[in-house]
Amino acid sequence: MKEKEFHQLPDLKINGSGTVGGGLFRRVEINGSGEVRGDTECEEVKINGSGRIEGTVKARFVKTNGSSVLGGELEVDELETNGSTVLRGHVQAQTIKTHGAMEAKQDVTGDYVHIYGSGKVGGRLRGKDIQVQGMMTVSGDCEADRFRAKGMLTIHGLLNADEVDIHVKNRSSVQEVGGGKITVKKMGGLFSLLERFVKTMFQQDDCFSADIIEGDEIYLEATKAKLVRGRKVMIGEQCEIDVVEYTDSFEIVGNGTVTQSIKL
Fold it and tell me: Are 259 and 241 in contact (CB under 8 A)?
């Protein structure tokens, strides 16, 4: 729908509690615990409180504040979530920004995906630029041109990106990592008293684990892996690697350990 056509449509606004059907609108705004049932197409959606939309949403801009639920497919230019948001259908957006906790039940595709807080993806995650600060879990594969993460990371499939930059905190794991330049470092900074207690009580160290890490240039810290394969490989502090395969150079820095190294 062309932009001028949106301006000819009515607005939908729910204040408090109420249920209405979907349709074509200029703007949709829910303040409170309102619910829209049915497919909705509009220029923008704003939800403040515990609003719900049960149906496909097509919009240029969607913003949620509070504890919102979007129950169908989501096709938007920009998605911004604040608070607790559940996305039950496939998500496709140019830009995704999350502050708080976002749970996507199925696949998520976005050019720019920035998660500040907690993100959970029940399917695959794809994007050009993916940035995480906090905690993220992906049930499937994760693909990006550039992937940056600071915090706790769990990916049950393949993490594949031209550039992978991970600063690990607590326990993180990825089944397999592939890329051009791969960097894993121990996250610095001060820890809270609770974090110090948990680390001491349960003897948890910052650690990143993977079955296979394969790339062109690889630098690892605080990493446990069965196989690391690359052109240039540097194993740093607190690493435990079973096998390193390399073509150009291989180096161990600090107290990292490698059981076997093989020049290809």
Answer: yes
Whose CA is closest to 50, among 73, 24, 69?
69
pLDDT digit of tens for each residue in the chain (264 aa)? 445 477 789 999 999 999 999 999 999 999 999 999 999 999 999 999 999 999 999 999 999 999 999 999 999 999 999 999 999 999 999 999 999 999 999 999 999 999 999 999 999 999 999 999 999 999 999 999 999 999 999 999 999 999 999 999 889 999 999 999 999 999 864 444 444 444 444 345 689 999 999 999 999 999 999 999 999 999 999 999 999 999 999 999 989 999 999 999
How is residue 105 annotated by DSSP? S
Residue 36: C-alpha distances to residues 12, 80, 82, 103, 212 (Å) = 10, 19, 20, 20, 46
The whole-angstrom separation of Cα 69 and Cα 264 is: 52
* Max Cα-Cα span within the chain: 69
Q: Which two tokens stand for residue 38?
A: 């049915």
3-state secondary structure of 141: coil
- For tokens 């290809």, name the residue: 264
Q: Is 112 helix (H, G, I), strand (E, B) or coil?
A: strand
Tokens of 56: 């496909």
d(CA 178, CA 163): 9
SS3 state of residue 164: strand
CA distance 87 to 121: 9
Q: Half-sphere exposure (CA, 13 Å, Cβ side) for 9? A: 19
The DSSP element (H or E) to which 127 belongs, if any, is strand 125-138
